[in-house]
Amino acid sequence: MSDNQENIVWHKAAVSKEQRRNQNKHQSFIVWFTGLSASGKSTVANALSHALFQQKKQVYVLDGDNIRHGLNADLGFKEEDRKENIRRIGEVSKLFIDSGQIVLTAFISPYRADRDTVRNLVDEGEFLEVYVQCSLEACEKRDPKGLYKKARKHEITNFTGISAPYEEPAHPEVVIDTEKNTIDQCVDHILQVLKEKHLI
Q1: How many of the other CB atoms lie within 10 Å of CB of 19?
Q2: Distance between CA atoms of 86 and 72, rounded to whole angstroms?
Q3: Lower Cβ count inside 10 Å, N or C end of the chain?
Q4: Residues known to be catalytic
Q5: What are the tens digits of pLDDT across the range 26-72?
Q6: Residue 112 and residue 13 in contact, taking contact as beta carbons nearer than 8 Å
Q7: Which pLDDT tens digit goes with each residue over 19-32?
Q8: Cα(155)–Cα(53) distance, integer angstroms
Q9: Topology of 17-196 in CATH?
Q10: Longest alpha-carbon distance in the chain
């Protein structure tokens, strides 16, 4: 324990996670989308969020770019910064779970160990890893932000899939293929898994 933490004590909330879940009439958990840039993480996460909202679920999307505008604006893209980026998101996601909400996260999160760290922050069954499968070639063709083009010109360093590694999930709860399936099909598949696991 660091000197900064030795006088800090976790404050127990007056309202429990279970009470919040009972009021919301659904479980709280993380759906962690991982995949290459332009694979469709944010698109699917937001479509799933809309579908869950229509079902009157308490749900929120934490998007990689949005988080880096504020909470993680001090971080770059070196390996240690990427690790800290995911660690912070994991801690924020844990708070969302405690609040009784469903949190959908859309981050490249290229390293298995970092994703496993987040999984281990929460209780069993509260973390669902969704691998958004899409070939590098297809992602480069989409390239909505022009990032791959910049990475190929060496204008961006440490770019996942080009100059930095991406470690595919070993045992994700869900795999969706955004090359072969529509966004609606991907969302329907995830919803089905959530129902089968009695999360919604």
Answers
A1: 12
A2: 10
A3: N
A4: 109
A5: 999 999 999 999 999 999 999 999 999 999 999 999 987 788 888 88
A6: no
A7: 999 999 999 999 99
A8: 39
A9: Rossmann fold (3.40.50)
A10: 54
Rounded to whole angstroms, the Cα distance separating 121 from 90 reads: 7
What is the C-alpha separation between 53 and 47, in angstroms, rounded?
10
Distance CA 153, CA 141 (A): 15
Q: Which two tokens stand for residue 48?
A: 């799933």
Residue pair 103/30 in contact by the 8 Å Cβ criterion: yes
